[in-house]
Amino acid sequence: MSTRKTEISSRQLDILKFIQCYLDEHGYPPAIRDISAGCGISSTSVAVFHLKKLEEKGYIRRRPDISRGIELASASDREEASVPLIGIIAAGTPVPVPSADTWSEADSADLIKVPRVLLAGAENVYALKVRGDSMQDALISDGDIVIMESAVVVENGETAAVWLKNEKEITLKKVFREGGHIRLQPANKHYPAIIVSAGNVEVQGKVVAVLRNLL
Amino acid sequence: MSTRKTEISSRQLDILKFIQCYLDEHGYPPAIRDISAGCGISSTSVAVFHLKKLEEKGYIRRRPDISRGIELASASDREEASVPLIGIIAAGTPVPVPSADTWSEADSADLIKVPRVLLAGAENVYALKVRGDSMQDALISDGDIVIMESAVVVENGETAAVWLKNEKEITLKKVFREGGHIRLQPANKHYPAIIVSAGNVEVQGKVVAVLRNLL
DNA sequence: TAGACTACAGAACAGTTGTTCGATTGTAAA
DNA sequence: TTTACAATCGAACAACTGTTCTGTAGTCTA
């Protein structure tokens, strides 16, 4: 944990906002003098000073030698997110659990790009590759990639990866709490729902999206 | 049709390739002097000369006032592609056919972002929203988005949108040519394949990928 | 052959841009 | 009060970068 974000001064927030706006407007990063002018700073050195701070704190990255080489730390993550692919999901094995540093370690796992629209704001998401045809009742095929959100609570009707303790099996189903038991409803309506006791289920994550590549 | 691409000289092709490589390697465009050095040109004015040509011919765009303000005409499409969402796909209706200007008109339709990796190099792709549960045999759900490639030929085993003339029905199935007839195999192995005569099928496009958003 | 055009070289120039140095001010801790 | 530090200013510098001007050489056409 080296690059922990610390609090920033109002001036630094100003500058950060200005960089964001400038990027939106122009499509390329501002020069130091743009920042100075835009934030009402009369000296470039002040901007440099704060840019250093912002870089230390991990809010921006800078490319030396290159003009306007400023990148927002979360720049490329605006349109698409990088989601760690941390393992496979198959019928007979519990899903891999993301560790605390799954998202912080840049290199640890494969990162796959996912359009932000699919994520709908979900955070702490990770990806699993589907192995086997055991989830066709969930309309999920061998080779699909499921985007999961590590969630503790699952609303009624949301699709979740559920570990059935007795059966020692993982399934992806819509979860409905009904009195003392839980109804697990497949996405494919031609498949029957199953009713299990609350003690038998262990929600391992929420399904956010599914990607399938046919080519 | 104002910016028609014309032929370019080998030098200009050199420069174009160099710009592409440089972008791949560095993530930002080259300076004029980078181009000169990289292409074995001993004068910046020569590079300028050819850059003007390349811009006239529509291969690149240049941003005046900004250093390294060179963009490949197809620059932003590197990591993710913008795919036009041109309609819905349902059992009883043929799929909308993309017109020639589907990809050229910027505003015409909704554009959805799709990671390039999913496309696997496919071109002339468009997106359709799935309506109804008629395609659960293809492991496709109501609300899914299917990415299609307008292809004339479909290899054996590839998944395609097939219009069954007699049944007046669209299905997504793997296509296998077998002698005089065609076998259409659902992705879900619990569903049976159907055998149809070649005259009854009309391939309307190749399925490239499927996106599903559960949230 | 003359003219037009493409391609190239070299050099000089001017604007842009990032960096650095010294000095000043205000605030908070010791 | 002294010290330390964050924040600021102003100015100068050097490097980077795009532009432009003056030529030269080859090719093609009229």
Secondary-structure map:
The structure is a homodimer of 215-residue chains.
Chain A: H1 10-26, H2 32-38, H3 44-56, E1 60-62, E2 70-72, E3 80-89, E4 110-115, H4 116-119, E5 125-130, E6 145-149, E7 159-164, E8 169-178, E9 181-185, E10 194-197, E11 201-213
Chain A binds a DNA duplex (30 and 30 nucleotides) through residues 9, 11, 31-33, 41-46, 48-50, 53, 64-69.
What does this structure look like?
Two copies of one chain form a homodimer. With 215 residues, the first copy, chain A, is α+β, with helices and mostly antiparallel strands. The first copy, chain A, has two domains: 10-72, Arc Repressor Mutant, subunit A (Orthogonal Bundle), CATH 1.10.10; 81-211, Umud Fragment, subunit A, CATH 2.10.109. Helix content of chain A is 19%, strand content 33%. Chain A has four helices and eleven strands. The first copy, chain A, has helices at 10-26, 32-38, 44-56, 116-119; strands spanning 60-62, 70-72, 80-89, 110-115, 125-130, 145-149, 159-164, 169-178, 181-185, 194-197, 201-213. A nine-stranded mixed sheet of chain A has the order 4-3-5-6-11-7-8-9-10. A two-stranded antiparallel sheet of chain A has the order 1-2. In chain A, β7 and β8 form a beta hairpin. In chain A, α1 crosses α3 and α2 packs across α3 (44-56). Chain A is elongated, with a radius of gyration of 23 Å. The model of chain A is unreliable at 1-5 (pLDDT under 50). The A-B interface holds A 28, 63, 66-69, 79-80, 112-115, 117-120, 122, 133, 136, 139-141, 158-159, 187-190, 206-215 and B 28, 63, 66-69, 79-80, 112-115, 117-120, 122, 133, 136, 139-141, 158-159, 187-190, 206-215. β11 of chain A pairs antiparallel with β11 (201-213) of chain B, so a sheet runs across the interface. Chain A binds a DNA duplex (30 and 30 nucleotides) through residues 9, 11, 31-33, 41-46, 48-50, 53, 64-69.
